[in-house]
């Protein structure tokens, strides 16, 4: 063995020895701490801990008082330091945030949020986000202090972090809509749309979509949200996995309003974009929401049903009715029933000059019904054949698709459970 190897081995041995000794001493110290002590010593330890907690609270109160004073009367640099302290103290808990609001820290922070200095602006917004966390009262105070008037008119000059912070703050404040607090959506929507229309991150866009969703929960905001810009952005983001659910949920709120339904009916991306989402087997919630929007559009509208049929919705609905979540299956079957009724109606004699009215029991009417059923069954069979390979892979895994073909052939003569 060389001298170098011997020296290295000796050093390792010593290191292991001293490590074991240190572990032993630490274990002995831990056991000593947990051994029964003299009651007088226990009381003194409890008193010491209480003194430490009281001292910490006193220090925090001093910091808070200083921060409040600097916010109201300090220089710009002192106000920035105060905003940092308030953000840190606001993280301590809900009661602390409410107490700080009572000390009047919100109005000066809102004023700082309108600063042209980006760093100062961000510090104020970050502090306001913490103060708004979990308390409707503080959110209302932020609104009353005029935060909407401080929103940047040109989001293009904002860096990504500042844009994200503003998006989070507006998202937090927009939750007031769920408590019927009056919110001026006409000031929020343009700001949010400008961020959604920018090159911001998906996380920032998701916060903005959350704001639109909160606003859409109030029917009074439907007219403000009913614009081509809003619907184009919502439909575009509905095709992105991370933002799909929130965008579709917002569309679901808007489609039940008269203005929202009209906007969707006339949008060139409908129904193709929504039908595409229904093919996402790994996004069952998105499938459910997309099917819901299409149900509202298709209800009592032969024009919309024709557009959907031409876009190839029937095969996708058939697949959904077999492989999707229970709610998506239910909605797919409902839509299929409407398409079935539509097909049967078209097969009946209803146009051109009528020499006589056909009774329900007449031979001509019966033949029409029989022919309609045959056409519908053939359409179902063809659609199933067309999609059975993909359904076999998803539903049966490694099993041969021949089993599914046999199922289709043997069951195609039976009526589907529409």
Describe what you observe in this structure.
The chain is an all-alpha fold. The protein is built from 21 helices and no strands. It has helices spanning 3-34, 39-73, 76-90, 94-102, 106-113, 118-132, 136-144, 160-174, 185-196, 202-216, 222-225, 228-237, 244-254, 258-265, 272-277, 284-298, 302-310, 313-323, 326-347, 363-396, 401-411. The model is unreliable at 27-35, 350-360 and 398-418 (pLDDT under 50).
Give a topology summary.
Layout: H1 3-34, H2 39-73, H3 76-90, H4 94-102, H5 106-113, H6 118-132, H7 136-144, H8 160-174, H9 185-196, H10 202-216, H11 222-225, H12 228-237, H13 244-254, H14 258-265, H15 272-277, H16 284-298, H17 302-310, H18 313-323, H19 326-347, H20 363-396, H21 401-411
Helix pairs in contact: 2-3, 3-6, 5-6, 6-8, 8-10, 9-10, 10-13, 12-13, 13-16, 16-19, 18-19, 18-20, 19-20, 20-21
Q: Report the C-alpha radius of gyration, rounded.
A: 33 Å
Mean pLDDT: 80
Helix content: over 70%
Shape: elongated
- By oligomeric state, this entry counts as single chain
**Structural class by SSE content:** mainly alpha
Q: Could you tell me how far the N terminus lies from the C terminus, measured between alpha carbons in angstroms?
A: 85 Å
Largest sheet, strands/sense/barrel: none
Strand content: under 5%
Determine the number of helices (DSSP H or I, runs of at least 4 residues): 21
How many E-type strands?
0
Order of helices and strands: HHHHHHHHHHHHHHHHHHHHH
Low-confidence stretches: 27-35, 350-360, 398-418
């Amino acid at each position: 063995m060389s001298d170098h190897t011997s020296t290295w081995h000796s050093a390792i041995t010593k290191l292991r020895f001293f490590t074991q000794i240190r572990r032993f001493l630490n274990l002995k110290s831990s056991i000593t701490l947990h051994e029964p002590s003299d009651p007088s010593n226990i009381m003194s330890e409890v008193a010491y801990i209480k003194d430490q907690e009281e001292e910490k609270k006193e220090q925090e109160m001093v910091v808070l008082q200083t921060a409040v004073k600097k916010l109201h009367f300090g220089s710009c640099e002192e106000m920035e330091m105060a905003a940092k302290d308030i953000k840190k103290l606001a993280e301590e808990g809900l009661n602390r945030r409410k107490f700080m609001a009572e000390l009047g820290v919100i109005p000066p922070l809102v004023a700082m949020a309108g600063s042209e200095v980006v760093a100062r602006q961000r510090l104020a917004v970050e502090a306001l986000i913490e103060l708004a966390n979990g308390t409707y009262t503080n959110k209302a105070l932020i609104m009353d202090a005029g935060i909407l008037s401080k929103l940047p008119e040109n989001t293009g000059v904002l860096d990504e972090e500042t844009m994200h912070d503003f998006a989070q703050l507006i998202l937090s404040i927009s939750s007031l809509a769920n408590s019927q607090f009056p919110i001026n959506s006409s000031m929020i929507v343009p700001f949010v749309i400008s961020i959604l229309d920018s090159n911001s991150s998906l996380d920032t866009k998701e916060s903005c979509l959350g704001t639109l969703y909160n606003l859409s929960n109030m029917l009074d905001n439907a007219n403000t949200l009913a614009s081509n810009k809003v619907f184009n952005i919502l439909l575009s983001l509905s095709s992105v996995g991370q933002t799909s659910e929130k965008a579709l949920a917002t569309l679901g709120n808007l489609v039940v309003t008269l203005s929202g339904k009209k906007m969707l009916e006339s949008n060139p991306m409908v129904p193709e974009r929504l039908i595409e989402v229904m093919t996402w087997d790994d996004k069952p919630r998105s499938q459910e929401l997309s099917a819901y929007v299409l149900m509202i559009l298709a209800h009592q509208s032969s024009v919309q049903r024709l557009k959907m049929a031409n876009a190839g919705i029937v095969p996708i609905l058939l697949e959904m009715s077999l492989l999707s979540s229970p709610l998506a299956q239910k909605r797919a079957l409902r839509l299929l029933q409407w398409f079935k009724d539509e097909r049967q109606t078209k097969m009946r004699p209803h146009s051109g000059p009528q020499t006589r009215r056909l009774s329900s029991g007449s031979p001509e009417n019966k033949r029409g019904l029989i022919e309609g059923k045959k056409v519908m069954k053939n359409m179902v069979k063809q659609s199933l054949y067309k999609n059975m390979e993909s359904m076999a892979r998803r539903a049966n895994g490694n099993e041969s698709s021949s089993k599914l073909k046999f199922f289709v052939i043997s069951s195609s003569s039976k009526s589907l459970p529409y």
